[in-house]
Task: structure prediction
Amino acid sequence: MGTELRCRLAHVLVLTAIACAAGCSSGTAGHAPDANSTASNVTLTAAQRQHLQIETVTPTAFRRSINTAGVVDFDNDRATSVLAPFSGPVSHLVASLGERVKQGQELATVSSPDFAAAVAAYRKALATATTTRHLADLDKDLLEHQGVSQREAEQAQTDADNAQSDRAAALQALLALNVDPQTIKDIQENRPVARMEGTIRSPIAGIVVERLITPGQLVEAGSTPCFTVADLSRVWVQAQVFGSDAAAVHIGDTAEVESDVAATPLQGTVTNVSALVDPDTRSVIARVSVPNTGQILKKQMYVRVLIRSQHEESGVLIPVSAVLRDDENLPFVYLEQADGSFARRHVTLGYRDADRYEIPAGLKSGEKVVVAGGIFVRFIQSQ
Result:
């Protein structure tokens, strides 16, 4: 009897297991799947489908917006480093830091032997040019009366022409030293020069943003930076663009620059996209030119930049709500199948445009995606 009882008990357990397997084989909320659906698909009732929103995938035109960070810099087309045009000790500083100056305005003076030598050379060239011209005119008159030979007259004319060239070169040397017109006029009229000092002048109109010399400091011609003058009405923002976003940024794109010191974003334009990748950050620099109203943007200030591409692209865009994550954190969506069931499809996420994702791979035009209610489908599938 013990053996017979054990056989009957085993038979009951087998039947129970078969019944359980039959009842649990369809993870479809109690509805048997159609013959065309796979075991992993989800089939919903008409009432359950009311919880879903489905969209048909179609290519869409869009323009990228790139959020990034940038650093403020001077507009180098409107800023310059002022170098000493002559050597010598600084005798007097005229311009103050932060002062607005005009083009040609005096910034500092230098007790320079270069200046004195240039003045002396110009005086000598003027005198020589006057003398040789007078002699050439005399020889020309004498030649007409056979008082000198043709050769002597021609030599006098050559000497006069050379002296005029030397005078012009000496004048250019003074102009290169930024000598003011009144001093040049005094030299030409043989009047004494009031002050034998060289003057450092601003080459552009703007604001003195750096003063790099002090009284008594010895400066070297052409190598010692003395001041930086910049027009701050417009600045550059050097924005960092990473990865695939670099291909979407072009000259002429509009940009918004936000900072902690401005109540509203400043509007700018991309004026240059670097051809080189920064070896440290692996980014490409996009230069944004920004009107600096009120001079609120300062050099080396960190800002936030939103670049709006003017280049139109086409791709598959789906709502962010359509994208779910699996146990391995991989993105997927639910697609409606021909038999009315729903199947998972892993996708590749690209650029995010507000509340929509670009899908570079994983979806084709015409497919139907669950854009709202995907979490409900996932819950039903897990039952």
Observations:
- The two ends are 43 Å apart (CA to CA).
- Residues 1-39 have pLDDT under 50 and may be disordered.
- Residues 32-62+314-382 form a domain with the conserved putative lor/sdh protein from methanococcus maripaludis s2 fold fold (CATH 2.40.420.20).
